[in-house]
Amino acid sequence: MKLLEHIAKHNNVNPSMVIPLYYQNVVIGAVQKNILHFLKEDCKDVFIVLDTHILVNPNIGSRELFFLIKEVASILHKKYNIIPPLRGENLSVFPLNRVSEILSTENDANTILQSSGLFEIDRNATSPFGIVTFGVMLNCFTRSKDGSLSMWIAQRSLKKPIHQYPGKLDPIIGGAVEAGVSPRQALIKEAWEECSMPKYLAEKAVYKGFVSYLMRQYGGIKFQILFCYDLDLSRTEMPFWKPQFNDNSIENFFLLSAQEVADRLRYTDDFKGGSNLIKIDFLIRNNIIQKNEIFYEKIKKSLRNLLLPFHESSQQFKIVSAAEIQEINF
User: Fold this and answer.
1) How distant, in Å, are the alpha carbons of 65, 91, 182, 229 from that of 115?
2) Helix, strand or coil for residue 205?
3) 135 closest CA partner among 159, 168, 102, 88
4) For the segment 139-171, what is each residue's pLDDT rounded down to a tens digit?
5) Cα Rg, the chain, nearest whole Å
6) Looking at the whole model, is its pTM more than 0.85?
7) Burial of 69 (0-12, 13-18, 19+ CB in 10 A)
8) Tens digit of pLDDT for each residue in 102-133?
9) How is 213-224 classified by DSSP, letter by letter?
10) Which residues contact 217 (CB under 8 A, 6 or more apart)?
């Protein structure tokens, strides 16, 4: 049974191997110790690496920092092969102490993520610094007369690069929340781009909370929060709507019974990365995965990992005062 295994793969950060990253006296992420030598040798004008934490040079403005981190990421890709090439999708960086505020309600998430963060960063440059990223996922499904559910599933293009999970299964709609965009806006944008879903139909999606995970990736940490939306087509004016190709990112669309989706999650690795967590969450909420499932309570609890190994509640976390920062000679 792979349900708990899927979740464990996405929550494998070793607290003893990371130290917090500060910008303007707030924690914005965490760096794995195995790349500290790179920051010390190649990026000493941008980062100050201390024994217990890392500081971003406070004399660097947010716009300049965006370009400097792009240069750092380029070195990580070309010289060390730690991360893939930059994607050209810019995300806002928010302090970790605002995460709980962002997750309070959908309105809070929409309002805060539309506002300006501390600075912007390319999506593929986030993992070396453990920057929290936000994404959206839509569970699109139909309900038959007997109440049974069937889910629209996308298969990712077989031509995608290996680090983008070619051929794996996904929700039909998903993507990053880019800088200055709300989760709801991101969902509507991705709906049209990925499966030609019209705006008026995507707007009927219902917000259902989030799943989150902290996962070792590319020599860094992928700390991702995915906002979950459900769209029950049988309760709309378009119950027989079908997804259509709108770009080359999708190989195929399938309508699978919820029970088959559950079995694929239990016994295979067919689904892509975080999509496993999105589908497990949906199936629990709709009583397809029930309380008699082995490790049910642990699975349910582990879908929302916000116990950061470098947060205030952790022994690894060290608060640095403004006075300490000013004493450092950049």
Assistant:
1) 18, 12, 9, 22
2) coil
3) 102
4) 999 999 999 999 999 999 999 988 889 999 999
5) 20
6) yes
7) buried
8) 999 999 999 999 999 999 999 999 999 999 99
9) EEEEETTEEEEE
10) 127
